[in-house]
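P.,

For your records, the input lines for the assembly:
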Amino acid sequence: MSVPLLVARGLARRYSMKRGLFGAPTAVAAVEGLDLTLDQGRTLGLVGESGCGKSTTGRMVLGMEAPDAGSIAFAGQPMPRPGSAAWRALRARMQMVFQDPLGALDRRLTIGAQVAEPLVIHGIGTRADRPERVAALLADVGLRPDHAGRYPHELSGGQRQRAVLARALATSPELLVCDEPISALDVSIQAQVMNLLTEIQARLGLTMLFISHDLRAVRQVSHRVAVMYLGRIVEEGAPDAVLHDPAHPYAQALVSAIPGQQGVRRIRLQGDPPNPADRPQGCAFHPRCPLAGPVCRQAVPELKPRPGDGRLVACHVAQGEISPPMQRAA
Amino acid sequence: MNLVEISGLTVRFGAAPALRGIDIAVAPGEALGMVGESGCGKSVTWLAALGLLPGKARIEGSVTLQGQEILGAPAATLDRLRGGRVAMIFQDPSSSLNPVHRIGKQVTEALGLHRGLTSAAARAEAKRLFELVGIPDAQRRLDAYPHELSGGQNQRVMIAMALAGQPELLIADEPTTALDVTIQAQILDLLNELRREMGMALVLISHDLGVIAETCERVAVMYAGRIVEEAPVERLFAAPSHPYTRGLMAALPPIDGPRRPLAAIPGTVPEPSALPPGCAFAPRCALAREACSVAIPPDRLLGAGHRAACLVADDALVPA
Amino acid sequence: MARFLAGRLLRAFITLFLVVTFAFVVLRLSGDPAQIIMGADAPHEAVAAFRQAWGLDKSLWEQYLGYVGSIFTGDLGRSMRDGRPAAALVAERIPATLALTIPALFLKLGLGIPAGIYAALHRNSAIDRVVMLVAVAGFTIPSFVLGLLLVLVFAVQLGWLPSGGQESWRHAILPVITLGIGGAAVLARFTRSAMLEVLGQPYIRTASAKGVPWRRVVSGHAAPNAAIPTVTIIGFMFGSLIAGAVVVESVFSWPGVGRLMVVAVANRDLAVVQCVLLLVSFTMVAANFTVDLLYGLIDPRLRTGAQGGH
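Structure tokens returned:
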């Protein structure tokens, strides 16, 4: 019954990074061979650690960055080139909420002016009914009408994030990409914003991509969860399935590292977080994986349904293609 | 005898109070957690205790280290103590290390200051410390610069540097906040191991109750420059008494059970310059009474080592 | 490294080429050298002969290409005024200029850096305010005004020091001070803000937290980091050792490179002007190049350059 709003296939994004004053540029693959489907009216939680490419994925999904390979289709149509007229028209239908609300707001404009801005840009409504529309949007995100006259620095962090959300909702978008929308906020405010996001998503039937490093937050707001590692999705499924019975060894480590769990044996990963400039051959996770075998060092595992329960997982071991080594101490 | 005792500590920056009377003690070898949201004063408490706040801060009260007053002690006394008997590590390890000095040098500097080790002896000891905190290839890493290491490795370097003076107390100020989840787990495990092995006391400052729960024996919850609740860690999680503590716990999304809207604390933390009269939490508190806005509520003893500064704490203990 | 050097050399070459071209265009289009050097009432034939002798009768393109060509072969031309090689004319003025600019450089460094550090360490104190007031005055007052002011006070009113000329070391005092004050002011402000920026960094707190005495925190931890942005300004000061004294040399009639250039420009003595400009831009380019190399030396992040903190 789920209808895809956005389908991405084989996405890749490579940057060239200069190392130091005298260095030659090297290629860094932020995203490599990523498939993603956003179902209409559902929230996909994209979780992973820094440098895994989740923010780059978010920008490509919005068409703010063109992929170097692969394709994105939005509502059945291919994503237009960034900057083209068709792309600008599409902007009203997809919006973004960032981590740092103060950076996302113009500190010289009032909140009301900034919420009205997308209406002006996309020619929505008349000048006369804009104040009413702005007031309605502010009410939607739990701000008072008098907040319209305030400047960003006069609001608290949580209120600013609400203002950013009101601005994103101004054009009645179908797709909302939230990139770490709560990680800059205090714990008590995070809960407020998570509640607001789930409430608005359900009420407006939005399709949402929720990008976060916080598995608890992802579970709280998402209908599905995708775990990313070094530019690829390694596991995808229902939140409780992934959190309570992770299939991929990386997802297992990630889940076991959630602080504050009683009686969970923690899987301690060896080594440093991965470096996108130095991607290992085969499965990118194999140097840190307690289960890796020779195949893992050569063949990139494909994200596909696991025999049995159909969980999407990209791992030779989880797929039963190779047997795990004798249980080593993790 | 307590290792550190802080009593009646107040700090103000200009007219705005940052701390409004902190009383807390750390026993030798104990792990104390300090939890609260940004601006609550959990870091300021320990920066003030060690004389690390900028000169414009007005500090009053008393901080003793094994009975000896250290608040306002002469610079030379504090220099011997900092990094010696009391060491501190910080939130963002990569910017907490000096970018132009090799990491080995930054550790040997501390060894020179507190243990009189120089040149080859200092280098050998730095290498031992690097191995102790789990830095691979320690010998070669001594000559690396901070930017050549990941955030997690830099935090290990910070810990090695803190251990250089063989401290009796390590203050860890949000040591894992800037790190990835899996790396955070590594660093917390390391801190736990080191504390057990070396018998040093630990003060873990964090906004994350989960992190505190795993590492500490006792917790102090702070709000708007005061400690609102203090308890042994199991007791705090079993019977949180202050409505703010309960609010913090309810705001954390669960990892199992049904998914429903979180019980978010309404409103925001008051500005230090515009604190409400009485209990600073009263305007956000569902249980607040008229009396809550009259005077700052006194501490109430609720059990062994359990206190809360709340007029309705006993009522709040009754599950809703 | 080789890539970096090659890129830098190419840029330096292009800079020098543009300077030469620019000077040619401006000087040749703003007046006829023959008319200016021979005088307005010189006989027509004499002017024509002068033009022919110096190739000024050819088309501008031919003159330009000929000029650039000779520079490439190392021939910097002769002065139209007295026929001597331009390079020699310029070279003999260099010591006089350096006699002003080198002591002035020491004054800038010796006064500006300590004043900046002191002001940063005692931020918002009375001394900080005084230092910054003097610094603002120091670089807003143009050097010719400051020079004339000093002459008025110390030469005319008090009669302590000579007002111009090059007879003894005492003649150098006022021009050196004039040159040094402005630079010291710039440097003081720069050092102060660099120092303030660094003192606010977490690693300074780390150093204090590990028990490093404050003086050593400043000298061992803050100063090396604050030096990184300051090097740019110091490099610029080195680059202006030759060219930085044009105004002051004119005010104090000091026979250095700067004064030579002023006279040569007035005369449209193309070869001499070009020669000075080449020298000036060469020292600037060389100073910039050195600064880039220095960055690599004092900032390890630029040396190996792997991006920090994943």
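Two observations worth noting. Confidence is low (pLDDT under 50) at residues 305-310 of chain C. The two ends of chain C are 25 Å apart (CA to CA).

Regards
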